[in-house]
From TrEMBL:
<dbReference type="InterPro" id="IPR017871">
    <property type="entry name" value="ABC_transporter-like_CS"/>
</dbReference>
<keyword id="KW-0067">ATP-binding</keyword>
<dbReference type="InterPro" id="IPR003439">
    <property type="entry name" value="ABC_transporter-like_ATP-bd"/>
</dbReference>
<dbReference type="InterPro" id="IPR050107">
    <property type="entry name" value="ABC_carbohydrate_import_ATPase"/>
</dbReference>
<dbReference type="InterPro" id="IPR027417">
    <property type="entry name" value="P-loop_NTPase"/>
</dbReference>
<protein>
    <submittedName>
        <fullName>Sugar ABC transporter ATP-binding protein</fullName>
    </submittedName>
</protein>
<keyword id="KW-0547">Nucleotide-binding</keyword>
<dbReference type="Pfam" id="PF00005">
    <property type="entry name" value="ABC_tran"/>
</dbReference>
<dbReference type="GO" id="GO:0016887">
    <property type="term" value="F:ATP hydrolysis activity"/>
</dbReference>
<dbReference type="InterPro" id="IPR003593">
    <property type="entry name" value="AAA+_ATPase"/>
</dbReference>
<feature type="domain" description="ABC transporter">
    <location>
        <begin position="16"/>
        <end position="256"/>
    </location>
</feature>
<dbReference type="GO" id="GO:0005524">
    <property type="term" value="F:ATP binding"/>
</dbReference>
Length: 261
């Protein structure tokens, strides 16, 4: 599990800090000393082309990869993750583009996968299916999301409904940060609107969100900041109200920030 290296959470520190994160895969340098800072209830849009290093950086934050160099801090306290479970224990959840759901299992079973609720029957431990179903319904209601039934198998759901299940699973266990990888890709307009609404709800509740997306309009609609990456480097950070789509696209393509002389 993640272990604070020293001290206790520091007052007035950002929720998440990544300092000088570097990562290589063999001879390929994927990240070159990238910094990231995120406050509670802040929505950050992480943008760049397909080789920018966005997913690698987020997989390090989610515990899937270990950095070669650099430091991660939560509430000002340095932490090290030994895998995704330890990152999750620290309140960091990641929703992957393919949702990472088990199609044959029900909605409720997917939400509680790896966190199953148990009861005892005739002195033996058994799954508490009723409690998991009830809590799943409560969770969807609180998030303003809908699925046909929490007892439906996931393979029977639409793409937008599967996205709702992934969001519910990520936010249902006291998450501090939710990372969304292309959350509106391949969704229709109603489902996109629902995802944006959910991000806004998380923000209002104090949950930070990082959105990896090629759809700049989603970030402008619900985000606070952009972070632009190119070839594993941080190019620029911008407040949403201090930039426009043409500037962001130019930085993504050129890898240069015109505001820096």
């Amino acid at each position: 599990m993640s272990q604070p290296i020293a001290g206790q959470p520091l007052i007035d520190q950002p929720l998440i800090e990544m300092r000088g994160i570097a990562k290589s895969f063999g001879a390929v340098r994927a990240l070159h000393g990238v910094d990231l800072r995120l406050d509670r209830g802040e929505v950050l849009g992480l943008v760049g082309d397909n080789a920018a290093g966005k997913s690698t950086l987020m997989k390090i934050l989610a515990g899937a990869y270990s950095p070669d160099d650099g430091e991660i801090r939560i509430d000002g306290v340095p932490v090290k993750f030994d895998g995704p479970i330890s990152a999750r224990d620290s309140g960091i959840e990641m929703i992957y583009q393919d949702f990472a759901l088990v199609p044959q299992l029900t909605v409720a079973q997917n939400i509680f996968l790896g966190r199953e609720l148990m009861t005892r029957r005739f002195g033996l431990p058994v799954l508490d299916r009723r409690s998991m179903a009830d809590r799943s319904r409560d969770l969807f209601s609180a998030l303003g999301l809908r699925v046909p039934s929490v007892d439906s198998p996931v393979h029977a759901l639409s793409g937008g409904q599967q996205q709702a299940v992934a969001i519910a699973r990520a936010t249902g266990f006291a998450a501090k940060l939710v990372i969304m990888d292309e959350p509106t890709a391949n969704l229709g307009a109603p489902a996109i609107a629902k995802v944006r609404e959910t991000i806004s709800r998380l923000k209002r509740s104090g949950v930070a969100v990082i959105v990896i997306s090629h759809r700049l309009e989603d970030i402008f609609a619900v985000g606070d900041h952009f972070m632009v990456m190119k070839h594993g480097r941080l190019i620029a950070s911008r407040a949403v109200d201090d930039t426009h789509a043409d500037e962001i696209v130019e930085m993504i393509v050129s890898g240069r920030d015109r505001r820096v002389s």
